[in-house]
Structure formats: structure tokens, C-alpha cells
Structure prediction request, 305 residues.
Amino acid sequence: MTERTGSGGRDGEATAIVSVGDGWEGGEDGGGDGRRPEDGAGRGVVAAFGQTMKTLRLREGLDRGEFGNRIGYSASTVASFEQGRRIPSPSTIDRADEVLGAGGLLCLWKEEVERAQYPVFFQGMAALEKEAIELVAYDTIVVKGLLQTEEYMRAVLAMRRPPLDEETIEQRVAARLARQDIFDRRPAPMLGFVLDESILRRPYGGGVVLRGQLEHLLLIGQKRNVEIQVMPVDRDDNAGVNGPFTVVSRRDGRKFAYAEAQGIGSLQTDPEQVTLAAARYGIIRSQALSPRESLELIEGVLRSL
Prediction:
């Protein structure tokens, strides 16, 4: 269920989108091949794409097995694509278009099919991540999804209640891994993350998983376009007491803020509220340890494991 609230945004946009459902940090949906559409509208898009693929395949006189061999998948996976039960990756769509001699017809579906992997409330945020020239975030419970290792992802998703089935977990792991290409995009966006110190000490998945996650943070923190900072637990002043949030800036100068808790997500578009969120992040950043001090703290926690 999605509810739009407010009416003060520019160009007639709502000032915020408040969604009730599976939360972003609790389940950042979508990902590589094997993904499933997340809502009714998405299923319709994926079903239409699958029928188009099937029609083109039959036109070429290929059975599912032969077509699957040419694009690198089994006949059963091709059937899942055609029946709208799975979402192919953009590269798979490109390959299918080439094999079927579709002349770009299947490629026209890529944007809509990719959007369909996300629940309605996250589609806007997913698109913003792809357009971001800057993304900054403050987190207090778990490591930001964009920073998670695969093992940490699985551990966090396995803790969900009610439990997620294995297929859904695999789908969401693929999603987070796919979205991490933001770190290697060119031109590189500016990325900043402030993590509460307590996150670094929560052994989600066990000591081995935590060790791998801390090592990953140290590696990511070495990237020139990334700043990782830690908010110490002994700070007596913390502007982030209202909880985690993310601010994204686009090339056109517009900024957006996202916050989520207990499956309720809000994508804020009101310029005043987003400006306040950005200012709040600036204060949080100033209160946290510097990037160098933060990496040293992470190294210390790692040595203590």
C-alpha cells in the first residue's frame, strides 16, 4: 500500500511518498537474473515482456533449450522468463535481442523490466541511485546495504520475521550486489556513510561474517570517492537520534531524502525538508570521527575479534 502525503513539492509533486510494506534496509529487493517482480503492476510488465520474448523465439523457430544455450541459461530458466516468473538482467536482454534478431525491440523493455524488480515505494529510490552524483547516509542498526558483503546480507535477511523463503533471500542478495556497481561508476559519484559504532560490534551471522564485513569496509573506505565515518557510542551529542536516513543529489541540483523503519518507507521530495536532512547529515558528519580515525577504529575492532 502506498500513500502520498503533502502537496508542496515542485512541479506538482507530492512532498513525500510514504509506503507501508517491506522496508528498504529490511529487504532491498531486486537484483540479477532470478529476480521476481514485486507488485501487480510489475508483474504485468514482466509478463508482457516474457510474452514478447516467446513470440520472437517462436518466430525464429527455436525451442527453449536451444535458445537457452545461446543466451547462457537452461530451458527452465527461459520458461521462467517467458512466463513472467523471473526477471532477466539488462545484459541478458541485450543478448536475447541479438540472438532473436529483434532489432532492439526487447531492449526497449529494459528500463521498465528493471523497475519491476522493486516494490513500488522503492522504485523512485532505485532510479535516484543510478542518477546520483552524491549519496550520503547515516545508519544505526545494520551496515548500509550498499556496503554489505554477500555473507552479511544473507545473515541479516535470514533474521527477518516473519522468515523469508530461500528464493526471496537469493533474490534480494542479488539485488544488493547488483546495486553496488555505484562504487565503480564513471564519472564516480561522491559517497559518504556514517555508521554508528554499535553496528561494527554486532556479530550478525557470527564472528567470521563480521570479520569479513569489517575487512570489506576497510577496502571500500580506501576508494577516493568514498568516505566512511563512525559515530562513537560515547558521544554525548548526536544529531542522528531520529534514526537512519539517506540523502541523494542529482546532476540537475535536486536533492531527495529517504528514511525507513519497520517496513514504512518515505521518499521526501519537499525542498525544505530535504535541505534540513542534508544539513542534519552535515552535523552528524562533524560529530563523528574523521574518515582516517574511523578506519583506525574499524581496524581496532577487527583486531579484537
Observations:
- DSSP finds eleven helices and eight strands in the chain.
